[in-house]
Hints:
Layout: H1 7-28, E1 31-33, H2 34-40, H3 45-57, E2 61-66, E3 72-77
Antiparallel strand pairs: 1-3, 2-3
Helix pairs in contact: 1-3
Amino acid sequence: MKPTESLYTLYMNYKEQDRQRILSYLESHPSCTVKSIIEESGAERLRVYSLLFELSQEKKILIVEESEWGAPIRVKWIS
């Protein structure tokens, strides 16, 4: 770690990388399952759900199907 970098900065870089991986995957698979995003996008599985929530709030994706607990199962890229 460089002296000017904080752990927060490093986390944000990984988060942004995962966000780009998810967006890239959605561009080529506009309607897909969250399971396929986790398995095929290369994004860290522990960040996928929170990033999908953010993308949903930004109106970049539409959650097409949810579990009974509200977790997304299928999403659609709309932006």
